[in-house]
Amino acid sequence: MRDTLGLEGIVGVLVVFAGIGILTLHDPVVAGALMVVLAGLALIAKGLADTVMRSFGLK
Hints:
transmembrane helix
């Protein structure tokens, strides 16, 4: 996983999960909605990255 994300990416994922954990303690419904939004953003980013990779002929 470190090869894919790098150290900064792993720390970023941990910070996001820590923030959602804190939010879950305060309001679980809002935390669930935020998880859905983050999952959607991740899918959009993956789609954009795949498109860029294809346009450069790397995939």
